[in-house]
Amino acid sequence: MKSNAGFPRLLAKALKNVGILGNSKKHNVFGLHPLSVSVIYILVTLYLASQLRKLVTAFTKSDSLARQLLLELVATFELCAACFELIIVADNWGVNAYALFLLLLTIWWSTKWGDATACPYCPMEEAFAGQRTWKSALNIIGVQLVAALLTFKYVQVLWAIELVETHKDKAYEECAADLQVDMVMGAIVECALTCLCRVMSKILAEKSFRCSGVVDAAFATTMVVLAFNISGGYFNPALATSLKFGCVGNTAVEHIVTYWIGSCTGALLSCIIFESNAVQNFLKRGKEE
After folding, report:
1. 176 beta partners
2. Whole-structure pTM over 0.85, yes or no?
């Protein structure tokens, strides 16, 4: 009995030693470290999304439009909800912590989403290449946008509970735009780095070696960090709209030009660059070797 009674104390002591417990109970539930609550919220979101994917798979026909659209809805919700919490991480523990979480999440999503992308320019690329109709692409983009705009309602419920000090007043406070340069420069940054990310993704998909997903995630995360203090480094119009549309510091036009026109132009340019002789010859040489 003594050893059983002592176990909770030993566990609490161990958790305090690693910093998970021991914070002010007045501001943080059970004295939990605020970062641990952010991690829990992200894990809850990932679990909820995984269960929704199972339901979609169980109740829709394989390769049906309904399944495709619903899986895009779930993926976009999952991406945006997790990245809302990453804003808390970045604001309180800096860009390095943000980058680490983003890297791990990107690797996770690459193994779980299947054909879903949660990104509007991906169906645009497919339509541009003749792999799907523009009508189909617009259907997917519409679903992604709906999920992006509704996600904050879910996040707002979690933040309004205010389990920890880092969530205090976040549910209802006015957000601030991330664009730190003028609209044209922001669009150029989003365009150029989106283009680089997409070209790298296409090359890695073509090469298809064991760690290509990890390399792709690491490269994309690096590009995000490079643009973090310039445009925010979203490289995804749906994500940018979910997190930052209507925030103080940007007009609707600035947001659309930077995060929609900029990113989508970069993605379409990546299609042209990838099909260029230089890139295709590089890939052929790699196969021959």
Report:
1. 248
2. yes
